[in-house]
Amino acid sequence: MTEPIRPVDPTPPRSRHTALEQMGGATGMVCTMVPIVAFVLANASLGLTPAIYTAVGVGLALAVLRLVRKEPVQPALSGLFGVAVASLVAWKTGSAKGFFLLGIWSSLALGAVFLLSVLVRRPLAGIVWGALNSTGTAWLKDKPSVRYYDIATLALTGVFAARFVVQQWLYEEDSTGWLAFARIAMGYPLLALALLVVVWAARQSGRRLAAQAHQRAYEEAQAKAGHQADEQPGPLPATT
Hints:
Elements: H1 19-22, H2 25-46, H3 48-68, H4 74-93, H5 101-119, H6 124-133, H7 143-172, H8 176-185, H9 188-231
Helix pairs in contact: 2-3, 2-4, 2-8, 3-4, 5-7, 7-8, 7-9
């Protein structure tokens, strides 16, 4: 007897990575924040050049520490690279506030790119999430999924826009200390909130795509079962 065909539960498994893990974890946050604090403190007491050496030294020490402890060094290396470039800008401009200039204009550029991706119907939040989690871009063919990722991408756009507006204003006011505070406060905390929206969009889209895939599999199985039933020979004619 053929077993009845039942649709499978369309609820997708939860993502393997939390929003914090997507950003490198708690130690990734430390690798980003500590060199900034070190730069501001050293600049206030020692001046610009020692502050540059201090920030780069702290970033390098964090990278070495993670290497010695056999932890992933990518967050520390990314932070070290960012600190090195920011320090170079500060040295070239001859001003401590120049340390934050790259981050300010990067926020503007990222906000523009994310907004543009929504306008061309290729929301970057979904594309980046698919690349990081190996889920692909099948959601682009599903309009509700695209809308979910539009919302998530706009949330990220809002974060980048807020960073630019606030930090550019502080830059023009020569408020180096407040620039550091804004850089930290509007960094991981705001990004974490936006990533919650991305995770929400991914789960909503995942449920839709999983339900659609299971529905297609169910219909194909039913069609196959019906085709096999049609091919079965009928009863033999009675003999006299």
